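Marked as duplicate of an earlier ticket. Keeping the data here for the record.
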Amino acid sequence: MSEIFNYRLSPNIVAHFKERTAKTYNCLYESLLSKILSGTLIHIDETKISVKGANIYVWAITNMENVIYLYNSSREADMIKEKLSNFKGILVSDFYTAYDSISCSQQKCLIHLIRDINDDILKNPFDDEMKENWQRFYDDLIANH
């Protein structure tokens, strides 16, 4: 507001506005979370970001139609485990070990799998069997799309 309109708001007003906005949209958040949890597939990933110099973690959780973002001060999975405790479908992730504690079927994200395979091939450039297996996987992937 200050930069655009040259109008200063007190920190108390801003805090009150944020609190009211959070309450207003909590119903939407709960609805999106319910839709995601009632489905058969969830994609999840987390990333570290810096907010005012402090590192926090943001999780993106989606069923490919709806998405919610959660943040936490640490990368610990207790919050995520609690949020996904009733999910019974397939969780697609990068296989971060914290997801192991979530009681559902799991699958590795294709992009993360390809990155891991590429890393293995780069580390083992003379492993022809690995290259052949990767080529077969790639051919099958392309043939089915």
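See parent ticket for discussion. The domain at 2-87 is CATH 3.30.720 (Signal recognition particle alu RNA binding heterodimer, srp9/1).
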